Model the fold of this input.
Amino acid sequence: MTIPEVIRNTLTRYLHGRGIEIGALHKPLKIGDRGRAKVFYVDRLPLDELRQQYPELNGLPLVTPDIIDDGGVLERIEDGTIDFIIANHLIEHLDNPLLALENWCRKLKVRGKVYLAVPDKRYTFDKDRPLTPVGHLVEDYQVTSRERNDRNYQHFVETAEIIEKRVGDDARERVESLIAKQYSIHFHVWTFDSFTEVLLYLIDEMQIPFKILDYSPPQLGGNEFIFILEKTSGQGSSNLPGLLRKIQRRLCFLLVRNWPAKQIS
Done:
């Protein structure tokens, strides 16, 4: 077992009760003791359509979705009813990540967990793409869905030109093909540091009641970082003045941000 696999497995210790995994496809998270956690699988398409959408996964076993739903919205799940949400290599595929995190928090019970694994662009095919700044995500959160679709066009261009190295008419045709197919590209890309800033904004500025319970920066031989978020009741820290609370959180995040430099050469 590799170091990244050990880390993934170790962090499943936070998952208890009944929860969901969104977009598992051929790589559902392995939870050692299934007796402590019941997982229902959510995807945007039924199994046969997932096969059509991802022909590159032909020959691999795919998880059969229990719930067909938009993983960033979860309309079919009642608020405050689940104990955990697993979202591995998913959030980069969502064109409105801040709204998704807000929705996930609402679906969880108090003390419910989000197990969130995200690819670090430095170790993936996204390595040459520009980082997605927090400001871009804020704009995605604020604009209409139609305006966001227009903004997404540039991400399809990045996929064709930067990742696939296409040029001219070939690139344009590829962009149109991906859009027509509604192919699930990486709309956004982050490093461990830059995603930490996203969570800082979510907690401090948007006041979404999450706290970071645990985390792992990218490990040798891996390409992802992992955060475990816990939904809070909003109690306990409410007596702290807002500025003091923000300073307290920022010091915590600075400690997190200094960690990767010691781990990655």
Notes: The chain has nine helices and seven strands.
